[in-house]
Specification:
By secondary structure, the chain is of the alpha/beta class. It folds into two domains: 133 residues, Rossmann fold; 64 residues. The chain is built from ten helices and five strands. Strands 2-1-3-4-5 form a five-stranded parallel β-sheet, sandwiched between helices. The radius of gyration is 18 Å and the shape is elongated.
């Protein structure tokens, strides 16, 4: 029996996560709320084979520490990270054995982003619903909009500046577009594009679970 603990709920809701990776006769998957400092000391007692970190707290409580993750890996537990806190910590600890997955992780490892502010969101503590939009998602969408010639370079720079200048709990597309100098026509086209764009943090979280599932299937 392979035991897996996954910290998520925000980037990827639990019910959607279970559609990708759920308990079977040979696998036990335990889904937990976003990780915070101290959680791994309790997780170790459950004797998992794999720990996957997707979401974690940043400012509401103390974030999971590097030493905590290293202590887990030193016990022979494989630790994966993607999407949000997991991507950030994986980029910092991949040389020591933590496994990073996805676009957000690659953004951190290449130095294109370097702050927890890029993935931070305000959330409803009860429902784990995101109440703001993460900067990493908005930058991803605006970059794609530039490639599709929906906006030009100067307009993208303006949108990103507005987004970065906004405190993370207040970040959203509506406010950013309202403050921008884009014409109403361009705003309309960009809104349509935003509605069709993937949530990159969610896609990374899915990729992580698919990766773990495939690795188990191959073993």
């Amino acid at each position: 029996m392979i035991k897996i603990i996954v910290y998520t709920g925000l980037s990827l809701p639990f019910d959607e996560a279970r559609e990708i990776l759920d308990s079977t006769d040979n696998i036990k998957v335990i889904y937990k709320r976003p990780i915070q400092r101290g959680d791994l000391s309790h997780a170790i007692k459950e004797n998992p084979d794999i720990i996957a970190i997707i979401d974690g707290v940043f400012h509401q409580n103390s974030a999971v520490g590097h030493k905590e993750i290293l202590n887990v890996m030193n016990k022979g537990i494989a630790v994966y990270g993607a999407s949000s806190m997991g991507a950030l910590r994986a980029s910092e600890l991949d040389s020591l054995g933590m496994i990073g997955i996805g676009y957000v992780y690659n953004q951190y490892t290449t130095g294109k982003v370097d702050s927890d502010d890029d993935v931070a969101v305000m959330l409803d503590g009860d429902t784990l619903e995101a109440l703001s939009e993460p900067l990493i998602n908005m930058d991803y969408v605006f970059s794609n909009a530039l490639r599709e010639n929906i906006i030009d370079e100067s307009e993208k720079e303006e949108l990103i500046k507005i987004t970065k200048d906004t405190y993370y709990p207040q970040r959203n597309y509506a406010q950013t577009l309202r403050k921008s100098s884009l014409s109403d026509d361009k705003k309309g086209k960009l809104i349509d594009f935003i509605r069709q764009s993937p949530d990159i943090k969610k896609e990374d979280a899915k990729e992580l679970l698919i990766t773990i599932k495939n690795e188990i299937d191959k073993s």
